[in-house]
Design brief:
- With 543 residues, this protein is of the alpha+beta class.
- The protein has a domain at 300-513: Roll (Dipeptide-binding Protein, domain 3).
- It is 31% helix and 20% strand.
- It has 19 helices and 18 strands.
- Strands 1, 7, 8, 9, 10, 11, 12, 13, 14, 15 and 16 form an eleven-stranded mixed beta sheet that branches. Strands 4-6-5 form a three-stranded antiparallel beta sheet, covered by helices on one side.
- Strand 5 (162-169) and strand 6 (172-177) form a beta hairpin.
- The longest helix has 18 residues, at 487-504.
Length: 543
């Protein structure tokens, strides 16, 4: 995940994996899967009555709110979604198209290919404690991100192409690039501007991790109860482009599917919107008058192999196990039709997508032949899996498919924290099945691929593959593609190295699926289902 190759910091590793929306409901790495109660009624009270403009919007988020809230570090689905309402970048992006728009800056640079971008800050912008936003705050955040001694998740999104950020005058900041990098404009939303006077204090970053959130966005955080709920209210001092439409918001964290669905359904529904809707409940919610819509993107079930554990060091074995899986059955039975078998590392809607040269269509005979060619027989596999509900639904198809080619398979779904703590501790494992969705960070393929592959990133540490000669050449090809100025040539270079990733199948998706959001359109307008965890209410309002 980050450094120049997207290396996740060792210090934040466990918190990252515990709470990330990238796995388990998302890359790396899932939002917190600890059983979360709906919280005490006093904190879940929607308030304000059933009607009126001052009533509280109540949302249900299917991921934990007890991950890191530090915007430079977090991959938590809940915390990232909340931070998009609390903080601003110089530029932010549309939640669906990911097109950048001016947030704290007054405009988007006219020349995306320039190697210097100059931004004027919005006059009158202030943080939620009333202090003005300054250029020093912007430089403070970027200095942290680019500091070679400080490992953050955001570092990998910026350090490969951003040389420095410097103050020009009281209202102007300048970004100096190492080479032209147009994709960097959309990535600026990942550098949320934070008040230096708060987070530079001793213990400031630790407070950010624990839930202290003070930004300049349209909503300010008013209370935070880990594993229960987080509340917000419109910030009266906000003068930016996405004004708050709700006087108050209450976001409940309910990881378990049944109570999450119950909270949004029925005549006494206590919430107006929920993400992470199980496929089995779509019909029930629609018949109850709710709108349910999906967002198809990078969300995927992937397999990750320990290449130091024989026979998974043999590419033929990894390929055989992928060919053996009946992905069409998995889509039909487990995903209720809301998915597609993987035909590349990238999903089909990604602008850089090209069908990979190696596509793992269901071919049990080829799987058997590859295992025989590799000299493997009597293989027994224990699949270490995260216990995200839709992943658990998919596991029986993997087991039956592998059993059918003579691979004795057992399933071991566990809390995400348990799964990745074992790998943090460098315990032995064979195969991990989990979920990933790097789309919460963006759409550009360079970001997505570096998020998953790179010589020092966390995933490659888990796979123990980075020293392989094929891996070393892959990393060189990836770095060359990052620096390629011609967009068509860059796209082709990415597609070519994705073919290598597909062939090697070290960490590779089995299926891509839709994420479902449900809301009451009699009460809310402007909702768009997004293809990554969480919700975005910056353009929503009461109906």
């Amino acid at each position: 995940m980050r450094d120049a190759t997207h290396d996740v910091p060792a210090l934040g590793r466990r918190a990252f994996l515990k709470h990330s929306g990238a796995l388990g409901a998302a890359a790396a790495v899932s939002a917190s899967l600890a059983a979360c109660s709906a919280g005490p009624e006093s904190t879940n009270d929607t308030g304000g009555g059933a009607g009126g403009p001052n009533r509280t919007l109540t949302a249900v988020i299917g991921y934990g709110n007890d991950g890191s809230w530090d915007p430079t570090q977090t991959a938590s689905a809940f915390c990232m979604a909340a931070n998009n309402h609390i903080y601003e970048g110089l530029l932010d992006t549309d939640p669906i198209s990911r097109e950048p728009y001016a947030a704290l800056a007054t405009r988007v640079p006219a020349d995306p290919n320039a190697t210097t971008w100059r931004f004027a800050l919005r006059e009158g912008a202030s943080f939620h404690d009333g202090k003005p936003v300054t250029v020093d705050d912007v430089v403070f955040v970027f200095d942290r991100i680019l500091d070679p001694k400080t490992q953050t998740l955001a570092k990998g999104f910026f350090a490969p192409w951003l040389k420095e950020v410097r103050k020009v005058d009281r209202q102007t900041v300048e970004l100096v690039l190492k080479f032209p990098f147009p994709d960097g404009l959309s990535r600026l939303t990942l550098a949320k501007v934070m008040p230096k006077h708060v987070f530079s204090e001793p213990g400031g970053w630790e407070d950010a991790i624990k839930g202290t959130a003070i930004g300049s966005g349209p909503y300010r955080q008013t209370a935070h109860h880990p594993k229960s709920n987080t509340t917000f209210e419109a910030y009266a001092g906000y003068n930016g482009p996405r004004r708050a439409a709700f006087r108050k918001m209450n976001w409940l964290t309910i990881v378990d599917a049944a109570p999450r669905v119950a909270r949004i359904s029925g005549a006494s529904a206590g919430a107006q919107i929920s993400d992470n809707i199980p496929y089995a409940n779509i019909g029930q919610l629609e018949s109850g008058g709710l709108t349910v819509a999906g967002g198809a993107g990078m969300n995927n079930l992937f397999l990750m192999f320990n290449t130091e554990h024989k026979p998974f060091d043999d590419v033929r074995v990894r390929q055989a196990l992928h060919y053996a899986i009946d992905t069409e059955k998995m889509v039909e039975v487990a995903l209720k039709g809301h998915g597609t078998p993987s035909s590349s590392f990238l999903n089909e809607a990604n602008p850089a997508y090209r069908r990979a040269k190696t596509v793992y269509d269901h071919d049990p005979d080829r799987a058997k032949a590859l295992l025989k060619e590799a000299g493997v027989s009597g293989l027994r596999i224990d699949i270490l899996a995260v216990n995200v509900s839709w992943i658990v639904d998919c596991l029986p198809t993997i087991k039956s498919s592998w059993d059918a080619i003579g691979v004795r398979t057992t399933l071991s779904p566990q809390e995400t924290t348990a799964v990745f703590t074992k790998m943090d501790q460098k315990q032995d494992y064979q195969v991990v099945a989990a979920a990933s969705n790097p789309n919460q960070f963006g759409l550009d393929a360079d970001l997505i691929m570096h998020y998953n592959y790179g010589p020092t990133n966390l995933w490659m540490q888990y796979t123990r593959w980075a020293r392989d000669p094929v891996a070393r050449q892959l990393f060189k090809d990836m770095d060359r593609a990052t620096r390629e100025p011609d967009p068509d040539r860059k796209k082709a270079m990415i597609q070519d190295y994705v073919d290598v990733v597909a062939e090697q199948a070290v960490l590779y998706p089995v299926v891509h699926n839709e994420l479902m959001t449900a809301w009451d359109d009699r009460l809310l307008t402007g909702i768009r289902a997004q293809p990554y965890p969480g919700i975005n209410l910056l353009q929503a309002k009461w109906a």
